[in-house]
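Journal club prep, notes for RB
We'll compare a predicted complex against what the paper describes. Inputs for the (1S,3S,4S)-1,3,4-triphospho-MYO-inositol case:
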Amino acid sequence: STYVLDLNDKPSEKCGVLNVTKITENGKKVRKNWTSSWTVLQGSSLLFAKGQGGSTTWFGSNQSKPEFTVDLRGGSVEWASKDKSSKKHVIELKTRQGTELLIQSEIDSVINDWYRALTETINTHSDE
Ligand code: I3S
């Protein structure tokens, strides 16, 4: 029989392509710059690497250095209100460090899975 190893099963180890923009950095508003990012949830860290697909290899490991890493501990996740973006399916992620990100996918099952995984991660790791 054949086993299928699905790395997306565990909420702490998930990856995929998402549209991402920062909206606040260290408490200060920054200009939106939506980019397609290879996104990896690893433990309590969320890593973004620029460039769709690009250097993705077997088992979703990525050759390129993460462009940006977010510590999810003590952060919060909610569905973004309409004034935050005109796009559909947008998650607003706030970190304890005062960074706010918008995360979006056109595919609602994809963004729903990320919403669940990020929420679970924050709930699991926030007392660390
Ligand atoms: O919240 P905003 O300012 O309406 O965000 C839009 C702008 O950032 C726009 O870029 P410029 O105004 O720099 O040209 C982006 O192209 C849009 O995607 C932004 O809005 P959405 O609603 O897509 O998040």
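Talking point for the session: Residues 41 and 71 are 10 Å apart (CA to CA).
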